Amino acid sequence: MKVSERRTSVETVFDHLYAEIVSMRLLPGKKISEAEIAGMFDVSRQPVRDAFSRLENLDLLLIRPQKATEVKRFSSKAITTARFVRAAVETRVLQQAANLCRQEGTELLQSCLDEQREAVISKKYDHFRSLDYVFHEALCKVGAADFAFDVISSNKAKVDRLCVLGMSRDEKMDQLLEDHIRIAKMVSNNDEQGAVQAGMLHLSRLDSIINTIQEENADYFDD
Fold this sequence. Notes:
223 residues; mainly alpha; Arc Repressor Mutant, subunit A; Four Helix Bundle (Hemerythrin (Met), subunit A); three-stranded antiparallel sheet; 10 helices; globular
């Protein structure tokens, strides 16, 4: 297999497994086999192994020598850390965005919201999840803090699977859109305090969801 072909195979396997894991179609603790995945995509084990490695780096797979690879369970400590870091970084991003936002920034945020509305109407759940990232990236851009998006997105990804379990997909999209509209309004109005308050309310919605999931699905957690 040529290098370019192997890279394409790695991307294909990675994209499929990533979507299955973050959408909770592959549940925490679920065992997956290199051989089975290779057979599914009609590829050798090497691109599957490379895809597994990438997913492990994202803290989505647990790979152990001589033992079955499994979908990573949630860690309460890791979730708490990820949410703390994200809240700290996003607070500063929202302050800067509100302070620096001008007409161009308002138009960028409005464009993000327009796409989200279309996704809600069309019930395109996976697309809306992608647009959620786009919106937070846009906030970083408005706040002249593009570099902060890597930190936000990596920590956001660590809890996104919990969001899937937390509420119906229609309810989740409606609530996220309402939060984003409120955040964009405060930023566009150059209201730093209002933007931060709206942003922290947005992040706090996971509090009760996490507690409920821990009580009802303790086997999804490794601590």
